[in-house]
Amino acid sequence: MRKQNHRNYKNTFSNSVKWHRELRISVYQRDSFVCQDCGYTPDEIPQNYDGKFTVGNLVLDHITPVIKGGTLDNLNLRTLCDPCNARKGSTDSKVSN
């Protein structure tokens, strides 16, 4: 029984990681790998981006933070650079430009 629970956890975790990668790819591509606040673009954008890691200084940002009821979907996610994301903190915000 214990091994089966562990196996289910591993499968769930694996599916979750794949889903997050697909979501990251989707949001970065939708936003053209550009910070939606200041316009920063990384020097190099991989041609076959697999969603495994962030690109350059870009991160996914929740427009409405999860702690304030925001969701983990394309409508509540956008691409920001690290400095813009740090400046925003956990506040609700829309794109400033």
Write a brief structural summary.
With 97 residues, this protein is α+β, with helices and mostly antiparallel strands. 37% of the residues lie in helices and 10% in strands. The chain is built from 2 helices and 2 strands; from the N terminus they run H-E-E-H.
Can you put this structure into words, describing what you see?
- The protein has 2 helices and 2 strands; from the N terminus they run αββα.
- With 97 residues, the protein is an alpha+beta fold.
- The longest helix has 29 residues, at 2-30.
- The termini are far apart.
What topology emerges from the helices and strands here?
Blueprint: H1 2-30, E1 58-62, E2 77-81, H2 82-88
Antiparallel strand pairs: 1-2
Q: Kindly state the percentage of residues in helix.
A: 25-40%
What spatial order of strands do you see in the largest sheet? 1-2
Strand/helix succession: HEEH
**Spatial shape:** globular
* Beta strands, count: 2
Mean pLDDT: 80
Q: Largest sheet, described in full?
A: 2 strands, antiparallel
Helix- and strand-based class?
alpha+beta
List key phrases describing it.
alpha+beta, 97 residues, two-stranded antiparallel ribbon, globular
